[in-house]
Design a protein that fits this description.
Layout (H helix, E strand, L loop, with lengths): L1 H21 L21 E3 L4 E4 L11 E6 L13 E4 L5 E11 L13 E6 L16 E3 L4 E4 L11 E6 L13 E4 L5 E11 L13 E6 L16 E3 L4 E4 L11 E6 L13 E4 L5 E11 L14 E6 L5 E5 L5 E3 L3 E8 L6 E8 L2 E11 L3 E5 L11 E7 L5 E3 L4 E3 L2 E15 L12 E7 L1 E9 L9 E15 L3 E7 L16 E10 L7 E9 L1 H9 L7 E6 L7 E6 L11 E7 L1
Parallel strand pairs: 1-6, 7-12, 13-18, 20-27
Antiparallel strand pairs: 2-4, 3-5, 5-6, 8-10, 9-11, 11-12, 14-16, 15-17, 17-18, 19-21, 21-24, 22-23, 22-25, 25-26, 28-30, 28-37, 29-30, 29-36, 30-35, 31-34, 31-36, 31-37, 32-33, 32-35
Length: 590
């Protein structure tokens, strides 16, 4: 039994061995891709700049061909490609981590691990425009000749189109344009230096440097003066009257100014003049042909021919006739107002008149030495005579014939006015409280009553004309309290002061002259409103004329040794009762 088991086992093993030899089993090797090396390429770049990277080192253990893919660090990937290189641009700034992986070209699901990342820093590129080429074009030309120049070659580093302009070397520039070409002419001779500049068409603040300059020599052509057009002016006139004529249309080929002269059809010529106008009168009737000629003002030997067309003027015999119609008999014109002097005349009186002021038949002053004979003249009435008279007359005289006419008698009356002004600031000060300000008190105090008191007040005089004559001025004060008996002195303040800050310790100094003196305690009872009026005509006139600066009035007692127990209180501008407020009443004339 034991022997049989051993034989069966051997038989079975022999069968299995034989079966394996007839049907052998082969194991298949698993494919793998090794990790590529860290990509190589630039470590920095700019937004929208295309950068290229490459990798290597990946292999298939079965020696199959490989494809590569890149991850750009901005959530974008390259397409799978058999090339181990790829390019990319970034739209934003920052640090990007570029890495690569490989896969089997045949078995695309067999993919390597990602490589280590290549760090790339992307920055915003500065916006620049490159310098354009030196302009090309002619090397020379003539004055006033239009020459064309071209440039190009400028680029914007952000890919935008560019615009160009040219500097012409004479302080002028062409307009910015997408064209690379522009034309220019020069009005004088000499070397001109032409250069070009470019700018970004999207952001016009981005401008290139100027190009190198191209030198262009500009010269004058033939020196000549073009003859004038037919003179312009009246075609009819009268003996003795003066008429004005104008020439035009002439120019110098070298750009110089020109001078003109006229032929009057009598053999007489006007002198050469920088003016293109001239005047003339004829002393006999007839038809006269007027021509014009021009010459270069720099080289007076360069003279044009006479104008091809002549102006024909017909001169007739007629006497100048004048008639002043305004002012009229009995008119009263106010000094300083605007009035219209009017007259009638015929063309024989010429183109210009003078106007004068007379008192009866006596000359007073000249209103205008020359004005166009238009029939009217606007005059700001000025009494340059002997005051308010009813015997003034206006004389209008033809400058070409000396024929004149006098107006009817009229009067010039001075303007006058009366204004009553309110104080713009006032205050009193006291040595009893030398640092206290009383600018907002209801009262103005003057005198000595245990302490000394001075007062200040000021009025705005700008409503009175600066040329006015002050006929009278009264400072009107309303007294409420009087104690004792004394005189009050009114002077002009010599320094500026402030109602809200003036005190005894910073009190402004008065002028010595002029001054007014009045009995401060005259009339009335001790506790009742009483009006005090002080003549301050001289003070106000000095302020109006500008001889003194208006810093207001100073109210003081006199004598300076006034004993105790003398005081007056006047209403200030802050008093609740308007009847107590100080006034300045001024009567003036112009």
């Amino acid at each position: 039994m034991k022997r049989l088991l051993i034989i069966s086992l051997c038989t079975a093993l022999t069968f299995l061995s034989c079966k394996n030899e007839e049907n052998p089993v082969y194991e298949t090797e698993q494919e793998s891709i090794s990790t590529p090396q860290t990509p190589t390429g630039p470590s920095t770049g700019n937004v929208d700049e295309t950068l290229s990277f490459s990798t290597s080192g990946a292999e298939s253990n079965l020696s199959h061909d490989l494809e590569y893919q890149y991850y750009w660090g901005d959530f974008e990937y390259s397409n799978w490609s058999s090339s181990n290189s790829a390019s990319h641009s970034w739209s934003g700034t920052g640090t990007m981590f570029v890495k690569a992986r490989a896969r089997c070209e045949e078995h695309t699901d067999i993919v390597s691990e990602w490589s280590n990342a290549k760090q790339v820093i992307i920055s915003q590129a500065s916006h620049t425009v490159s310098t354009p080429n030196t302009p090309s074009g002619p090397d020379s030309g003539e004055v006033d000749e239009s020459l064309s120049f071209s440039t190009g070659g400028a680029t914007c580093n952000q890919g935008h189109s560019v615009q160009y302009r040219f500097s012409w070397g004479d302080g002028t520039y062409s307009n910015w344009s997408s064209s690379t070409t522009a034309a220019h002419s020069w009005s004088d001779s000499g070397a001109k230096y032409v250069k070009a500049q470019a700018r970004c068409s999207q952001n016009t603040a981005i401008v290139s440097n100027w190009s190198n300059t191209k030198t262009v020599e500009i010269a004058y052509g033939v020196h000549e003066v073009i003859y004038p057009d037919q003179p312009s002016g009246p075609e009819n006139g009268y003996i003795g009257a003066t008429y004005t004529f104008t020439a035009s249309g002439s120019s110098c080929s070298h750009g110089h100014s020109v001078q003109y002269r006229f032929s009057w059809g009598t053999g007489d010529l006007s002198p050469w003049s920088d003016s293109n106008t001239a005047t003339h009168s004829w002393d006999s009737p007839g038809g006269f042909y007027i021509g014009a000629q021009a010459r270069c003002a720099e080289d007076t030997s360069i003279v044009s021919s006479w104008s091809l067309s002549m102006l024909l003027i017909h001169i007739e015999d007629q006497e100048c006739d004048f008639n002043v119609t305004n002012p009229y008999q009995g008119d009263v014109w106010q000094n300083g107002e605007s009035q219209t002097i009017e007259w009638d005349s015929n063309s024989a009186c010429g183109s210009y008149v003078k106007i004068e002021l007379y008192e009866s038949s006596n000359y007073i002053c000249e209103i205008t030495s020359s004005t166009y004979n238009s029939g009217s003249y606007q005059w700001t009435v000025t009494d340059c005579g002997n005051g308010e008279l009813n015997s003034y007359r206006i004389k209008v005289t033809s400058l070409s014939t000396n024929v004149y006419d006098l107006s009817w008698y009229f009067a010039i009356q001075s303007n006058s006015g009366v204004v009553e002004l309110s104080a713009t600031k006032d205050a009193y000060v006291s040595n009893g409280h030398p640092d206290n300000n009383y600018g907002y008190s209801d009262w103005l105090v003057v005198g000595v009553n245990n302490h000394e008191y001075w007062s200040y007040l000021q009025f705005d005089l700008t409503s009175i004309p600066s040329n006015a004559t002050v006929e009278s001025a009264e400072l009107v004060l309303q007294r409420f309290l009087k104690v004792g008996s004394f005189d009050m002195l009114v002077k002009m303040v010599g320094e500026s002061w402030s109602e809200g800050t003036v005190t005894w310790n910073n009190t402004p100094i008065p002028y010595t002259f002029p001054f007014s003196v009045i009995d401060a305690t005259e009339g009335g009872n001790s506790l009742e409103r009483y009006t005090i009026e002080v003549d301050v005509t001289e003070h106000v006139q000095l302020w109006i004329s500008g001889e003194r600066i208006n810093n207001g009035f100073w109210l003081w007692f006199t004598p300076s040794t006034l004993p105790n127990g003398n005081e007056v209180d006047f209403g200030s501008r802050n008093n609740d009762d308007d009847a107590y407020k100080p006034k300045l009443r001024v009567t003036y004339s112009e």
